[in-house]
From TrEMBL:
<dbReference type="InterPro" id="IPR009057">
    <property type="entry name" value="Homeodomain-like_sf"/>
</dbReference>
<feature type="domain" description="HTH tetR-type">
    <location>
        <begin position="6"/>
        <end position="66"/>
    </location>
</feature>
<protein>
    <submittedName>
        <fullName>TetR/AcrR family transcriptional regulator</fullName>
    </submittedName>
</protein>
<dbReference type="InterPro" id="IPR050109">
    <property type="entry name" value="HTH-type_TetR-like_transc_reg"/>
</dbReference>
<keyword id="KW-0805">Transcription regulation</keyword>
<dbReference type="InterPro" id="IPR001647">
    <property type="entry name" value="HTH_TetR"/>
</dbReference>
<feature type="DNA-binding region" description="H-T-H motif">
    <location>
        <begin position="29"/>
        <end position="48"/>
    </location>
</feature>
<keyword id="KW-0804">Transcription</keyword>
<keyword id="KW-0238">DNA-binding</keyword>
Length: 190
């Protein structure tokens, strides 16, 4: 009689991703991932094939989730500046501490060297930039101006993430949100 799965593969992937980011793609063991998921290393092998396939599946699931979030429309509200800043801050939500942030940097560094993953990362950044441009247009900037300034906002967003990693004050989402509001206030008055 086959065993009943008490956790879906998706649940397992969601549970092991933070452990992968903290330990590092090259250092995490099946035993460590199994401990996090509450499953044996042999069960993980049966379900995912290999340590590398499990890691790739967890990273792919995370990337797929990001892609779905990026495909959704920007939140709206009475203050488009606030909506844009909150949306970008919320994208950083899964990176709740420095260890997870450093792990995501390591995955990014690895992905830059793998062409298919690099293309996907560029695609995501293009989606982010288009969403930022739409948010800036909602703030009243002319579409051409909004498109040009979207790159500036994106760069500032990335810079705020790195700044928080160094200074580490408050939550990453709050740090990003506050820093973006300052920039968006300036862009809205130019």
């Amino acid at each position: 009689m086959p065993r009943i799965k008490h956790k879906t593969d998706e649940e397992v992937l969601d549970e092991v991703l933070p452990a992968i980011l903290v330990a590092g793609v090259d250092r995490i063991t099946l035993r460590e991932m199994g401990a996090v998921a509450g499953l044996s290393a042999s069960t993980l092998l049966q379900r995912f094939g290999s340590r590398i396939e499990l890691i790739e599946a967890a990273l792919d699931r995370s990337t797929d989730r990001l892609e779905r979030e990026l495909a959704e429309a920007l939140p709206t509200g009475p203050d488009p500046r606030e909506a844009l800043a909150r949306w970008l801050a919320d994208l950083t939500g899964p990176l709740a501490n420095r260890e997870l942030l450093v792990g995501s940097f390591q995955v990014l560094a690895r992905d830059i060297l793998i062409e298919a993953r690099n293309r996907r990362a560029r695609h995501h950044l293009d989606l982010v930039r288009r969403r930022i441009s739409a948010g800036l247009a909602a703030m009243g900037l002319a579409p051409a101006t909004a498109a040009r300034r979207a790159s500036l906002v994106e760069a500032h967003w990335h810079g705020l993430v790195i700044q928080w990693a160094v200074h580490g004050q408050g939550t990453l989402a709050d740090w990003v949100h506050g820093g973006l509001l300052v920039l968006l206030d300036q862009l809205g008055h130019d």
